[in-house]
Amino acid sequence: MATDLEDKDDADRYRAPALDKGLDILELLAEQKDGLTRAEITKLLGRNASEMYRMLERLVARQYVVRSTGGDRYSLSLKLYALGHRHPPMNRLISEALPLMQRFADRAEQSCHLAVYDRGNLLVIAQVDGPGTWGISVRLGSRVGLIDTGSGRVMLAFQTPEQRAHMLAEHTKVKGEVTVDRDALEGVCDETRKMGFSQKDSQQTFGVTDLTFPVLGPSGQAIAAMTCPYLRRIDEYVAPTLEAATVMLRETVEALSMFRERA
């Protein structure tokens, strides 16, 4: 059995100081909602200013870290998040989400889908049909717009300003995308954060009301968005109302989210 001394010797033997510095910066920034200046990073890590400058420049060049618009603050980009999509944790998100989504679809009698950010737009990674004769669904693997969909706007709304700017900078138009003024989009994001979700008429299909809630990670930022494209019955069949479906979708997403408000 290895002793504590042997473990320490192994740790010292395989040290990689430059890698440690980079990881220290990433771990520090992961805890900061509004980013940090280079001076703050240097002070908090107890490092030399010149070595922090070089390391930050490399992390920015490799797109793991982004500068604020003013250039004086640094925050994490979404690159690590994007890399995580290629890793088994994404499979775990899907496997945990699908039973909850199926339960929602059965109760609400509506379809629903789960989307994550991917290279400037959103990627549908899970989809469940409602049990009824009629319904609307988004094909699994589809790329949907970041700007003009409920999923995209919720994903944007529940990010830091730096992350939102980075996502918008990466965005490319999808087929049929409705143009939205950036100032108007910021207003929509503000309102969405206040409400905690998005409810709006679909900008892609008549007669559909998009209900979207964020799936929140530990830091309170959206790691995914769950949407119900709600269809209202107009015949004599009494289906769950839009208001009831909203409550059900909120409960579904809360069961999946990793973030909890602190008292």
Give structural notes.
The protein is an alpha+beta fold. The chain has two domains: 4-77, Arc Repressor Mutant, subunit A, CATH 1.10.10; 82-256, GAF domain (Beta-Lactamase, 2-Layer Sandwich), CATH 3.30.450. Helix content is 45%, strand content 17%. It has helices at residues 4-13, 17-29, 38-45, 49-61, 79-84, 88-108, 150-157, 161-170, 182-195, 242-256; strands at residues 65-67, 74-76, 112-118, 121-128, 143-144, 198-201, 208-216, 222-231. It has a six-stranded antiparallel β-sheet, sandwiched between helices. A two-stranded antiparallel ribbon has the order 1-2. β6 (198-201) and β7 form a beta hairpin. The protein is elongated, with a radius of gyration of 21 Å. The mean pLDDT is 86.
Low-pLDDT runs of 5+ residues are none
Helix content: 40-55%
Query: How many runs of DSSP E, i.e. beta strands?
Result: 8
Please provide the ordered H/E string of secondary-structure elements.
HHHHEEHHEEEHHHEEEH
Q: Nearest-angstrom radius of gyration?
A: 21 Å
Total individual domains: 2
What's the mean pLDDT score?
Answer: 86
The amount of beta strand, in percent, is 15-25%
CATH fold category name of the largest domain: Beta-Lactamase
CATH architecture of the largest domain: 2-Layer Sandwich
Strand count, sense and closure of the main sheet?
A: 6 strands, antiparallel
- CATH H level of the largest domain: which superfamily? GAF domain
**Alpha plus pi helix count:** 10
Q: Kindly, what is the distance between the CA atoms of the first and last residues, rounded to a whole number of angstroms?
A: 44 Å
